[in-house]
Amino acid sequence: MKKELYIPLVLIGLSVAFIVVSFLLWLSRGNDSLLKKKLRIGALILTLSGVATGCWYSEEVTCYVPSVSCVFVVEDAVAQGTIELDMAVTNKLSGKIYQPEGEDFWYVITDQDDQEIQTGTVEALDGVFDEGMEEFELVVSSDVATGEYVLDFYTPELNRPAASFVLHIFND
Description:
There is one protein chain. The protein is built from two helices and nine strands; from the N terminus they run ααβββββββββ. The radius of gyration is 29 Å and the shape is rod-shaped.
């Protein structure tokens, strides 16, 4: 028999014993020795349950979406989550990454039909992500037409965007 099955089988046995002792305690109307046995069995069940849940999984299992470890801030944002870029003035977006973990950050610009327009890596202006806050700069291709796009930033630890902005590109 596999050793992973020992603890669940012992827990089942202890649960049955707990139920039997609880019933006997009810019949005896509060016998002190049965009460002590019930408390000991309950404590043993709690201890083994805690040990069982902590030792079986090599991967981290969670019931929630992990939070983003780093924060992307684009300096050209005019409102929460909205960036306006006048291509007649500049084709560069400046920003900062707070608490960057790792070196691999990238961005994707998509149109309203989820078609990728431009992708690239986000690189620190000083060349290395080694501080609590790093500045970066993105160059938007001059081939990108005016219109509304979505700018998503990605990190290696998430399979979803770490930050997302609406990007309005115009040429005045």
